[in-house]
Amino acid sequence: MTHPVHMKPAVLPAPLQSLVTDPKLQSSTTHLPALHSLAVQIEHNLQYQHSWTALRIHTHSPLTNELLPRPLVSGVPPERAYIDPDEQIELLKKADQKRKAATDDKSDSKPILEFEAQPEREWVLPTRLSEKWTLHQLHDVFTGISIVPPENETSPTTSTNPWRTSKRAILATVDTDSTVVYYVIHEGMIKPRQN
Amino acid sequence: MAPVTEPFPISRIASRYLLFDVDIISHVRRNHNMCGLLVGTIPNLSQQNVFLGIPLELMPEEARVLVEQGAAYIVDDAQAHRQGFMEMSREDRLKFLQYMDQQGHEKAMESKRMTEQRTAKALSAKGLKPKEEENPPVDPELVPEPYRDVTMPQFRPNSLASVKPVEVKEESLFDSEPAATAVSAPENKIVPHFITPTTSHPPLPKPAIDHSIPLPVVPKSYSLYRYVQSKGYFTMPGLRFGCNYSIYPGDPLRFHSHFLGTGLGWDEEFDLLDVIGGGRLANRNKKAYLIGGEDPQVPKESVTSTEGMRVFSIEWVAM
């Protein structure tokens, strides 16, 4: 819809709408504008709906520096997005020892068993529900990514967490009504969590 | 358990792959992590299908893995039987028939011995208790007309009928034709039973390896099956979870399954909705959804190698 320049539009576009139609994105030279605006939309959702921080859009692979099949997002969730089941056992053991030490002091009230896992930076793969995928495409995406996303151009791509040994990415799928669902995809056969 | 020598035969009957030897069945379960499915029932009681027995039916994938690994070979069972029995020598045939006769004789002797034992037992019981107390006379007029024939055996056990015909006749309160026939039947001459052989190995020797028999035809999820099997996982059919295989980290009798596996072609398109649905269902059941397929571009060292396999585990993120 076009308007005469001197008139205000009847309805102001939504902030997300104006974000994805940003002329800077339209002139992106790396990927198709549709893919780029998809990444922006997911980044927006992560930032404002799920309180992620330090978000970043990657267009090139940190390993080979080649163009990724599509722009990927990375960021830090407010809580750990994925805990390895073996790591969870380890953390629970530590928390139990801590609780025992605490109950020795007061000996009447038992604090609840709680453990803390530091949030880790995660890869996010933006997709649309209407898309068809193949194993080949997934393989191409996973070939391009590192175990841990780099925070900036110079930061390391290997993990300091000894339990994080395989590649994983969070599959963000957006429907036409802008609902986004998140599933984690691991490369290889990973022991399932006991939730 | 007798040791099994590989390769062992897998019988192909009507394009199903069956194992008939209990030793081979346990060998396959222990060493090749394959459960198969027991499909054998009792021929004259086929509605009894809670506890099934031998034979064990293998999935075509399982049969193919065994053949490719050189652990087994396929035998066309109908052909092997036709050929084996048609070409059997006269001596072998006579020897086998003689053996069957001998077995039949033994069976007949045994059943006669059992009858005698039963008779002796019944008689000794009779010696302790007078017959009148055990079976008080029933006025035939008290039994309603349609039930007279039905209730009869209760008053007159068959074993007694054959041993003490005179008494039975006295005891009989109806004018009973059946009692009369029972009296005349038994003679002390032993007729050997006719034996239907239940196995064909023996008399047939272990079937020879025939390389002309084609490999089992497998679905496209085969590469995923082979990969998972090579990692030491057990698999069961995945119909109840809407996938190809439910994958167990050990024997399904001891473990819950860890993965719901779906095999896909390398360039086969799938809907993200299927991945999300699979991931959600698997997560609900404390499992992970597994998709996998083989890259045809990756060169393979041998038929059994799994270098080109790429698998992905999918789990729900709580957000």
Notable traits:
heterodimer; A: 195 residues; alpha+beta; Trna Endonuclease, Chain: A, domain 1; 22% strand; B: 319 residues; MutS, DNA mismatch repair protein, domain I; five-stranded mixed β-sheet; 11 helices
Explain the overall architecture:
By secondary structure, chain A is an alpha+beta fold. Chain A has helices spanning about 15-20, 25, 35-50, 85-105, 135-145; strands at about 55-60, 65-75, 120-130, 130-135, 170-175, 180-185. Chain A has 5 helices and 6 strands. Chain A has a 5-stranded mixed β-sheet with strand order 1-2-3-5-6, with helices on both faces. The termini of chain A are far apart. With about 325 residues, chain B is α+β, with helices and mostly antiparallel strands. Chain B has 3 domains: about 1-85 and about 205-215, 3-Layer(aba) Sandwich (MutS, DNA mismatch repair protein, domain I); about 90-185, no CATH class; about 220-319, Trna Endonuclease, Chain: A, domain 1 (3-Layer(aba) Sandwich), CATH 3.40.1350. Chain B is elongated, with a radius of gyration of 31 Å. Chain B starts with 7 loop residues before the first strand and ends with a strand. Residues about 130-140, about 140-170 and about 175-185 of chain B have low confidence and may be disordered. At the A-B interface, strand 4, helix 5, strand 5 and strand 6 of A face strand 9, helix 11, strand 10 and strand 11 of B.
Integer-rounded radius of gyration of chain A:
21 Å
Provide the succession of SSEs of chain B: EEHEEHEHHHHHHHHEEEEHEE
Q: Estimate the mean pLDDT confidence of chain A.
A: 84
Largest sheet of chain B: 5 strands, mixed
**SS strand fraction of chain B:** 15-25%
**Oligomer category:** heterodimer
Total number of distinct structural domains of chain A: 2
CATH topology grouping of the largest domain in chain A: Trna Endonuclease, Chain: A, domain 1
Q: Specify the biggest β-sheet of chain A.
A: 5 strands, mixed
Please identify, by name, the CATH architecture of the largest domain in chain B. Answer: 3-Layer(aba) Sandwich
Q: Using the CA coordinates, give the radius of gyration of chain B.
A: 31 Å
According to DSSP, the number of beta strands of chain A is 6
CATH class of the largest domain in chain A: Alpha Beta
Judging from the principal axes of the Cα atoms, what is the shape of chain B? Answer: elongated
Largest interface: A-B, 33 and 37 residues
Query: Mean pLDDT of chain B, nearest integer?
Result: 80
- Helical fraction of chain B: 25-40%
